[in-house]
UniProtKB/TrEMBL annotation:
It is a multi-pass membrane protein. Keywords: Membrane, Transmembrane, Transmembrane helix, Transport. Residues 1-20 are annotated as: Disordered. It holds the Pfam family Nramp. InterPro entries: NRAMP_fam. It is found in: Membrane. It comes from the Bacteria. This is Mn transporter. The keyword Membrane applies. The chain crosses the membrane at residues 28-45, 65-83, 104-123, 129-154, 166-184, 204-226, 247-272, 301-323, 344-362, 374-394, 406-428. The keyword Disulfide bond does not apply. PANTHER family: NATURAL RESISTANCE-ASSOCIATED MACROPHAGE PROTEIN 2, SOLUTE CARRIER PROTEIN FAMILY 11 MEMBER.
Length: 441
């Protein structure tokens, strides 16, 4: 019998061929395949309201508000990650957890906050549809109803998922802001200072813009969407590290686009005002920041991107809102059910679209100002949602050993308290202003 010496065994082990690494294309496709809920939820913030907010930040305050986006990127990643983790661990959506873990009255209140916040954003999407079509010469009274009817038919007939990819592709027009930011030749020293050194201006308009930026970047509907999407995909804890990576990549990617929107509008519109800063009053003015890259085509390209973003969100938002509220109160739901089988679900979905269309049809709307105010409303309501999320994610009976770690709680509560303080300060300035008292000049 032939014996194998230990030395020979060792040699055989070391010379055994290694398992070949998967081809580069296969690895790239794998990492692209994990992108989904987190990336979509994050990029939903770059809708017409988001473009209006970020463009106004750059046009009115130059580079001085870039630091806000750094903080909001971290905050967005934290909040999205917590909701994703809750979805993976519990297998339930956020509205389901709220219904099961809060008293009835508090559940109704939180769901009302969601409805109010989401309803405002839905209105903003149809205003965005109308504003984009206006740039092609189509009046709002035609564009808004056509957009509403298109979205309703696509969702009701179950074909929205296929068209969704087309709308998503149209939003890639906003990559042009990155090129415009470089071609406009901004003062990169001022960009660095604005990014890393916080500047606080004691003015009501500055506080309004920060609260609107918070409401745009960390919108309540994003939390509902990302948690429900994770549950629907059936992601388990063994896959969670990939989903967590995707959430953070989504936050960074989305807010990088927002960062360059601010830089490009600051380098064009703010500089054109000789550093005084002027509010943006129309979609056509917001499109001017793309002129360094797209020239005379800036307005049309901006309209295409905004139309895609608005239609994408105009389908997702009423649908996810109807799902969440039906789920929270135990009503039948689902696009596969007929109207008589799920009257609350279909009734609310239809009502939200009609509301958005009616507001968007109103003549002579101050589009940018309305979009800013709707996301300001989101920022004011957000603290209520954040406190509910923090309560749920720290419940051991729900999350087991996957509750927040200390550093997560410190950062998350700091964000929530900061947002609450800004919202309270803004409301205080409005109340005092009603009595003729100016807190800021």
């Amino acid at each position: 019998m032939k014996h194998t010496t230990p030395t020979r065994k060792k040699a055989e082990l070391t010379t055994r061929p290694r398992r070949p690494r998967p081809p580069l294309l296969q690895r790239v496709l794998f990492y692209l395949g994990i992108f989904g809920p987190g990336l979509i939820a994050a990029n939903a913030g770059n809708d017409p309201g988001g473009i209006a907010t970020y463009s106004s930040m750059g046009a009115q305050f130059g580079y001085s508000m870039l630091w806000v986006m750094v903080i909001l990127t971290v905050g967005m990643g934290l909040v999205q990650e917590m909701c994703t983790r809750m979805g993976v661990v519990t297998g339930k959506g956020l509205s389901d957890l709220i219904r099961e873990n809060f008293p009835l009255r508090l559940t109704v209140f939180i769901m009302f906050v969601f409805l109010l916040a989401n309803g405002g954003v839905i209105v903003s999407e149809f205003i965005g549809v109308a504003a984009a079509l206006n740039l092609f010469g189509i009046p709002s009274w035609i564009g808004a109803p056509c957009g509403g009817l298109l979205i309703w038919l696509l969702v009701a007939r179950g074909s929205y998922k296929h068209v969704e990819k087309i709308f998503l592709a149209l939003t890639f027009v906003f990559f042009a802001y990155i090129f415009s930011a470089f071609l406009a030749k901004p003062d990169w020293g001022a960009v660095a200072v604005g990014t890393f050194i916080p500047t606080i201006r004691p003015s009501g308009s500055y506080i309004l813009m920060i609260v609107a930026a918070v409401g745009t970047t960390i919108s309540p509907y994003m939390q509902l969407y990302v948690q429900s999407a994770v549950v629907e995909k059936g992601i388990g804890m063994h896959e969670y590290r990939y989903e967590r990576f995707e959430v953070w990549v989504g936050a960074i990617f989305s807010n990088t686009i927002a960062f360059f929107i601010i830089v490009s509008t600051a380098a064009t519109l703010f500089v054109a005002s000789h550093g005084v800063g002027v509010p943006i009053s129309s979609a056509a003015e917001a499109a001017q920041a793309l002129a360094p890259f797209l020239g005379i085509f800036a307005s049309r390209a901006f309209a295409v991107g905004m139309l895609g973003a608005a239609l994408l969100a105009a389908g997702v938002l009423p649908l996810s809102t109807s799902y969440s509220l039906s789920e929270a109160f135990g009503f039948e739901r689902g696009v596969g059910r007929a109207f008589h089988e799920a009257p609350f679900f279909w009734g609310l979905f239809t009502l939200l679209i009609i509301l958005g269309v009616i507001v968007a049809m109103l003549p002579n709307l101050p589009v940018i100002q309305i979009l800013l105010n709707l996301y300001l409303l989101n920022g004011l309501l957000l603290p209520i949602i954040l406190f509910a999320i923090l309560y749920l994610v720290n419940q051991k009976r729900l999350m087991g050993r996957y509750t927040n770690r200390l550093i997560y709680n410190v950062l998350s509560y700091a964000l929530t308290i900061l947002v609450s303080g800004l919202a309270a300060l803004y409301l205080l300035t409005q109340v005092l202003g009603f009595f003729g008292i100016q807190l800021f000049r």
